[in-house]
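Hey, quick one: can you model this chain's 3D structure?
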Amino acid sequence: MHNHFNGLKTAALFGGIFAVLLALGSVIGGGQYLWLFALFGVGMTFYGYWNSDKLAIKAMHAYPVSEAQAPAMYRIVRELSTAAGKPMPRLFISPTPAPNAFATGRNPDHAAVCCTEGILGLLDERELRGVLGHELMHVYNRDILTGSVAAAVAGVITSVAQMLMFTSMFGGGGSDEDRPNPFALLAMALLAPVAAMIIQMAISRTREYDADEDGARLTGDPLALASALRKLETGVARAPLQPTPALQNSSHMMIANPFRPQDVSRFFSTHPPMTERIARLEQQAYGFRQR
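Sure thing. Here's the predicted structure for all 291 residues.
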């Protein structure tokens, strides 16, 4: 069990986001379409999960690299994946000066790890090892599945809410007795996407804490990742990415929030504050020294 009960938190948050989806289904047509919304949510989840690697790599314009092109990256990933007893993922580099890294793919056998040119130029090899350990644990913890499910269901909720908005504004068929209260529909249409997004972001932040903790355990060097996060916080502030739709859909996979702090509120951030992540890693390192 993780020290901060992140698995339990994730399960509770998933229950919350599916509850929002089912609440939407119960409002429309007196609940007779509830099963349809559940089925639609499952279908969108599967699509997002199956194509997660292609979508993220395309969004970052990343290209595959050979061992000759990225020897240090290959050596570190090979050592860590061997230590974990897992297959080595495909490696990619994104031609952007913004320092960041992410892992994607539907399972350890179909995974990819990507670093930007910015992060490769910013970190030393020890810090890069800490970052790559973090990313590999996203793969081994099946966080890509978790993020894909949360993003897909949140997307379904937003689409249904838009339909509810239209219904509440222009009315629907049937008698006055059968027609839902337009004010109730409007309230649900406005609040449901916000609730879904807040829950989705909370799931992402919880998984980041897990990847920090498990990645540091894999490398045996929590302070290396802490040092990398300090540099990344400064580096992202100097070279933030523009929050385009494609990047917003992939940003939860990255080790650092790629956007300017003023573009994202705390509730809607996909990542915990760097100060909290660093403090937890330093506490973990202290625990290592006490053994």
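One thing worth noting: Confidence is low (pLDDT under 50) at residues 173-178.
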